[in-house]
Predict the 3D structure of the following.
Amino acid sequence: MINEVLEISRIESGNLITSVENIPIAEILQETMILMKPLAQLAGLPLHLESNIKPDLQIRGDHQRLVQVLVNLLSNAIKYNRPGGSVLIHCTQVPTGICRINVIDSGFGIAKADQQFLFQPFKRFGNLGIEGTGLGLALSERFSKIMGGKLTLAASSAAGSNFQLEIPIMEEIAASKAIEAPMVFKPVVFESKPGTVLIVDDNAANLKLFEAALTSWKNLNVISAMQGLIGLELAKVHRPDLILLDLHLPDLSGEEVLRRIKSDDATNSIPVVIVSADSTENQIRRQLEAGASGYLTKPLDLKKLFDVLRTYFPVENPA
């Protein structure tokens, strides 16, 4: 999960390094089939490949990440399938110079109301008790864009889902600077103003997510607390430049922590940004009126987090 968060963070910050090469699609499909067949067999699901592309058809992209996209799609197609179901990979070349790969399952489908959130990080759907991080589709969609392609949900119903990956073939990429451009990401480490960020959140996984997301910010010192009282003590001792505060803590509510920070002469000048799953307008307004400098909602949007960080830690080499 941490590795996936780091990948999302690198993409959002422009810090993702890609290894661009000529990739034979037929070989990629065979490699992916070999990787995923054991998982399909364990689930008792047949895994089929239908392809009418030429054996020498190539795209120009990142081999490892293209495999990761296909593995993510097939893993979901297997995990969210039904007993006696099947998974089909269909690959074809369309006249517009596109290689189109469809991953089709016979699972339970995705509710229409949830489809708009499919490619957002940390979003998970249904209550099937299936393990996952909610990052696989978000990463796959972003990797596809980096390679000049597009990942969409082509169709979904109670009979299953069809995810469609479209990647330009090599001739199209060579002829189009617009497609080449997003494939190049310059390595960036944010050279920001030095400072300290205090994170107060009682969820260990959330703390790790924050810490992973902040690795791109070279000059930031990150400290954390899982209880409100400890967070208050750390704020007094370290005088951080920014506090990221959850509202639901085991000892004090986040609202009480904010009140105490703002009523203490030693800490009242420290900006506090609330980070909470409660996104109601009334809650946001109440916290801002109580002295919060900002409000981020969970699941965490890394771009919005980075925008907040830029406000308090100006970047010398903005991406």
In short: The chain has two domains: 18-183, 195-312. The CA atoms of residues 5 and 261 lie 30 Å apart.
